[in-house]
Amino acid sequence: LTLRAADVHNSNEYPTVLALKRMGELLEQRSAGRIKLKVFNKGALGTEKETIDQLKIGALELTRVHISPMNAICPQTQVPTMPFLFRSVAQMRRALDGPAGEEILRACEPQGFIGLAFYDSGARSIYARKPIKTPADAKGLKIRVPQSDLWVAVAAALGANATPMPVGEVYTGLKTGLVDAAENNLPSFEGFKHFEAVKFYSRTEHSMAPELLLMSKKVYDGLPPADQQLIRAAAKESVAFQRLRWDEQEAKSLALVKAGGAQIVDVDKSAFQALMPPVYARFMNTPELQRLVKTLQETP
Amino acid sequence: MNVPAFTRLCAALSKLALVSAVVCLIAVLLCVQLQVLGRYVFNDTPTWTEGLAMLLVLYVTAFGVAVGVRDAGHIGLESLLVLLPERWRLRLELLVHALVAGFGALMAQSGWVWTQLKWSEPKPMLGVPEGLDYLPLLIAGVLIVLFSLEHMRALWRGEAVRPSWY
Amino acid sequence: MELWVLGLSFALLLLLGVPVAFAIGLSSVATMLAADLPLALVFQKMVGGMQVFSFLAIPFFVFAGELMLYGGIADRIVRFANSLIGHVRGGLGMSNVLGCTLFGGVAGSPLADVSAMGSVMIPLMKKEGYHADYAVNVTTHAALVGALMPTSHNLIIFVLAASGIASVSVFGLILAALIPALLLTLANLAAAYGVAVRRGYPTHDAFPGWAAVGRAFVGALPGLLVVVIILAGILSGVFTATESAATAVFWALGVTVFVYRSLSWQNFLKACAKACKTTGVVLLLIGISSAFGYFMALYEVPQRTGELMQSVSQSPWVIFLMVNLLLFVLGTFLDMAATILICTPIFLPICQQYGMGPLQFGILMLINCALGLNTPPVGSTQFVGCAIGGISVGQVMRSIWPFYGALLATLALVTFVPAISLWLPALMK
Ligand code: NA
Ligand code: NA
């Protein structure tokens, strides 16, 4: 049995790619070579959205995607994307390892997906030509956001001019001043070379939306229960490994952007957070979603 | 001249498709220009323009592809057919049209499958069903089948298919 | 096994005369069946392959090119080029090269270029006593420069074909193509001059004087400005590459309707209709190629090809030479867009391994494809040129060698001197 896993990252050393390979090693060991896992990164099997659909029709076994493209398919996955939901990366990890995290993963099942695990994607912060210390600094800023309703709403809540744009155009956009700012985690700020264009990375840490490891339910249901358990366990175990690699990657990226002249700015997050209630009111609009928000927030 | 009903139908559909494609193309153009306008003039970039432009361009393509089949606009190797005797050339040309029609049929069928599968999913920034992305496959597929059949019939009778609009 | 199904069925369908896009689609279907994968996947890849925002630049550049073709911009450019160098030996040939290059700059498509410039220049040259083969070769080769100009939709196609392997910015590629385009123009001028001297073509008119050149330039300027708008617009951050392409359409429309007043309603509709048909043809090819690309990734074709080539030689020079040869051979059979879409995922990784970046590779690819446009059995610009000149492909091949020489010299320079393509983009960083 060979499982194929898709990932869009170009680097073979990207933490999620390494984690998938790690999961493959675990599977091969524990099944005595019977189950293999082959990783196709660099988007070889398609975009995140496409691989999700491939899972749905059973044309692909596994995919590692950012949680955003699942938002339209399964509303519960919106919860961990919400702005300023978690207090810190450490707390985010504890919360997602808890029962609420498990509930969100399970919510994907009726749609045809087995949610195997959350991987880390760090915290996203705003970067621009100037420090963004208070919401006033963000007012009127032309900020690039991913093409999603939630991100546009967050930017609008900050009073910024949200400009949805594919990530490939952001470097030129920042360089030429087409957009004033963008927001992403440190490895992306470094990896896409955005730090060459704008120098101030203000730690707003407004979102800690994780990545998702999904399996096709169609494929999963066709496997013997013992193999199902093996796959679930290997996926869960790869999480700790991925987090370690992620922390290393972040430290490396931080050093690189600093060496490249970028400045890391600390901000008062509470002033930003105070502007978020309308976003919560619009997107967390059922008792179930509100309960999940509460459980995640109250995780110590 | 007595033009058969099937040819008249195909010609009308082809013209309708091409006119629709032109309308969609101009709409795509306006979407992108509106985006620039919004960013500079109103300092409020419309967030739906990009999604709509990307959706509409699929329709431009679908209509364009289908009309391309009818007006023989798709590029292929034809030089080898010239070397064959007349009788074989006709058979091969019929086969080529049949293969194109077959592909069109599969396109229509898959388009229908995906349209249904993605109908309940809202498209980000637009709110319309994600399935609308796949509807063009169904439209193009059906038109390709029709136009290929028209070509086969014309070949058989030694007639030519003329573009119905520009 | 699945790979054999893919390759053999594709070759067979092409030989049968199935249009390239449908041949790719049908061979993908056959492979899906052989691999026991759902057929619906082919069509998902197809739709997915078309949904990249930068793709919108393709219909826009195509549309702008069509408007310019029907809108009388070519006449002004011919007048300007003629006033500038019409008086030297083989002058009409030289001004044809210059005119095609300039029109290529605004239309960005070799085919539109040959159609527009060729229909003015080829009959004119024949009337002045030039041989038809010379007139056709000058036009079709000068037109190839259009593929490297900022309005070229083939540049966008390459950026998208490379997107899974390396991130290439549209603007970076536009800049990278400028100096090679200039070199190719100079090489074409040299070839046109060389043949003119050898055949003893006469000199005609005297130089009309700088004032006349200036007047002709002012006449051509509104059309030519579109290139400046695209470059300056992106460089200053006013718009993205895609938005600049949309602006090019409005500019072309404005110039032809309000400045030149030469675009009739009929021709406008014709341009719209042709743009839609071409968009359909090109985007279908792009979409369906992503199904092809899916199999190539699944069965690791790039890695295997790379290993195969490495087993022949480890020297970058030999590898680059082999890549050029393979691209040339494929380019003779396939259309430009198809060659770019099929070959980039296979050959870019290996070239990268030997130190050739995506920008340089892109230019190399485009020049190779351009060469293919003027090579039988399938050479679309050559076909159009021959049709206008009223000669056969066999006849045109007689004086083609100096022009091939010009292309090959440019290709060799781009392949082995990275600075030619990389200097400008590096400057703009
Ligand atoms: Na063009
Ligand atoms: Na060729």
Automatic annotation (TrEMBL), chain B:
<dbReference type="InterPro" id="IPR055348">
    <property type="entry name" value="DctQ"/>
</dbReference>
<dbReference type="InterPro" id="IPR007387">
    <property type="entry name" value="TRAP_DctQ"/>
</dbReference>
<keyword id="KW-0812">Transmembrane</keyword>
<protein>
    <recommendedName>
        <fullName>TRAP transporter small permease protein</fullName>
    </recommendedName>
</protein>
<dbReference type="GO" id="GO:0015740">
    <property type="term" value="P:C4-dicarboxylate transport"/>
</dbReference>
<keyword id="KW-1133">Transmembrane helix</keyword>
<feature type="domain" description="Tripartite ATP-independent periplasmic transporters DctQ component">
    <location>
        <begin position="29"/>
        <end position="157"/>
    </location>
</feature>
<feature type="transmembrane region" description="Helical">
    <location>
        <begin position="48"/>
        <end position="69"/>
    </location>
</feature>
<feature type="transmembrane region" description="Helical">
    <location>
        <begin position="90"/>
        <end position="114"/>
    </location>
</feature>
<keyword id="KW-1003">Cell membrane</keyword>
<dbReference type="Pfam" id="PF04290">
    <property type="entry name" value="DctQ"/>
</dbReference>
<feature type="transmembrane region" description="Helical">
    <location>
        <begin position="134"/>
        <end position="152"/>
    </location>
</feature>
<comment type="function">
    <text>Part of the tripartite ATP-independent periplasmic (TRAP) transport system.</text>
</comment>
<keyword id="KW-0997">Cell inner membrane</keyword>
<dbReference type="GO" id="GO:0022857">
    <property type="term" value="F:transmembrane transporter activity"/>
</dbReference>
<keyword id="KW-0472">Membrane</keyword>
<feature type="transmembrane region" description="Helical">
    <location>
        <begin position="12"/>
        <end position="36"/>
    </location>
</feature>
<dbReference type="GO" id="GO:0005886">
    <property type="term" value="C:plasma membrane"/>
</dbReference>
<keyword id="KW-0813">Transport</keyword>
<comment type="subunit">
    <text>The complex comprises the extracytoplasmic solute receptor protein and the two transmembrane proteins.</text>
</comment>
<comment type="similarity">
    <text>Belongs to the TRAP transporter small permease family.</text>
</comment>
From TrEMBL, chain C:
<feature type="transmembrane region" description="Helical">
    <location>
        <begin position="245"/>
        <end position="263"/>
    </location>
</feature>
<comment type="subunit">
    <text>The complex comprises the extracytoplasmic solute receptor protein and the two transmembrane proteins.</text>
</comment>
<keyword id="KW-0812">Transmembrane</keyword>
<feature type="transmembrane region" description="Helical">
    <location>
        <begin position="155"/>
        <end position="175"/>
    </location>
</feature>
<dbReference type="GO" id="GO:0005886">
    <property type="term" value="C:plasma membrane"/>
</dbReference>
<keyword id="KW-1133">Transmembrane helix</keyword>
<feature type="transmembrane region" description="Helical">
    <location>
        <begin position="213"/>
        <end position="239"/>
    </location>
</feature>
<keyword id="KW-0813">Transport</keyword>
<feature type="transmembrane region" description="Helical">
    <location>
        <begin position="317"/>
        <end position="342"/>
    </location>
</feature>
<feature type="transmembrane region" description="Helical">
    <location>
        <begin position="181"/>
        <end position="201"/>
    </location>
</feature>
<comment type="similarity">
    <text>Belongs to the TRAP transporter large permease family.</text>
</comment>
<comment type="function">
    <text>Part of the tripartite ATP-independent periplasmic (TRAP) transport system.</text>
</comment>
<keyword id="KW-0472">Membrane</keyword>
<keyword id="KW-1003">Cell membrane</keyword>
<feature type="domain" description="TRAP C4-dicarboxylate transport system permease DctM subunit">
    <location>
        <begin position="9"/>
        <end position="420"/>
    </location>
</feature>
<feature type="transmembrane region" description="Helical">
    <location>
        <begin position="275"/>
        <end position="297"/>
    </location>
</feature>
<feature type="transmembrane region" description="Helical">
    <location>
        <begin position="403"/>
        <end position="424"/>
    </location>
</feature>
<dbReference type="InterPro" id="IPR010656">
    <property type="entry name" value="DctM"/>
</dbReference>
<feature type="transmembrane region" description="Helical">
    <location>
        <begin position="354"/>
        <end position="373"/>
    </location>
</feature>
<dbReference type="InterPro" id="IPR004681">
    <property type="entry name" value="TRAP_DctM"/>
</dbReference>
<keyword id="KW-0997">Cell inner membrane</keyword>
<feature type="transmembrane region" description="Helical">
    <location>
        <begin position="50"/>
        <end position="70"/>
    </location>
</feature>
